[in-house]
Design brief:
The chain is an alpha+beta fold. The protein has three helices and eight strands; from the N terminus they run ββββαββββαα. Strand 1 and strand 2 form a beta hairpin.
Length: 144
């Protein structure tokens, strides 16, 4: 059985919204990450991934994103505690709000970083760098 997790690669003025995960987090505490979270069981519903990513972004950092989301990629991984996770990343466009760590037990700090800053950051895990590279490529296609 998998946990389903969604993340938003949020773009504003050529920068990405990145969080530093709380050191209390069981998985990847203190590391940089996209904003997102686990999909909750809802029974029969539609657009569950999209609604989840929008809700998690607003809950964790107080930012609203525009309606249209673009699929970036999906991966699977095993957490530090041995749970199997499927992770889906969406390219999101910033709409409104000032990013702040609204959920201190999950988010230590927030940053707006360029692709280059993320790729060279010592706290950016390889999977974050890969997500950003793919989101950057997709963003170029959608903005041209």
């Amino acid at each position: 059985m998998f946990i389903v997790n969604v993340e938003g690669a949020i773009r504003k003025n050529d920068k990405w919204l990145i969080i530093e995960r709380s050191k209390e987090e069981e998985h990847a505490g203190g590391m940089l990450s996209l904003v997102g979270g686990k999909v909750e069981i809802e029974g029969n519903s539609s657009d569950i991934l999209e609604r989840t990513v929008k809700r998690e972004i607003f809950e964790e950092v107080g930012v609203k994103i525009k309606e249209k989301l673009n699929y970036v990629h999906s991966t699977s991984f095993v957490t530090d505690t041995g749970e199997n996770v499927v992770d889906i990343v969406f390219l999101c466009e910033y709409d409104s709000g000032v990013a702040f760590p609204n959920s201190p037990n999950e988010v230590e700090r927030v940053f707006w970083l360029s692709t280059e800053e993320i790729l060279s950051h010592s706290k950016a895990p390889i999977y974050l760098k890969e997500s950003i590279k793919q989101a950057e490529s997709l963003n170029r296609i959608h903005s041209s």
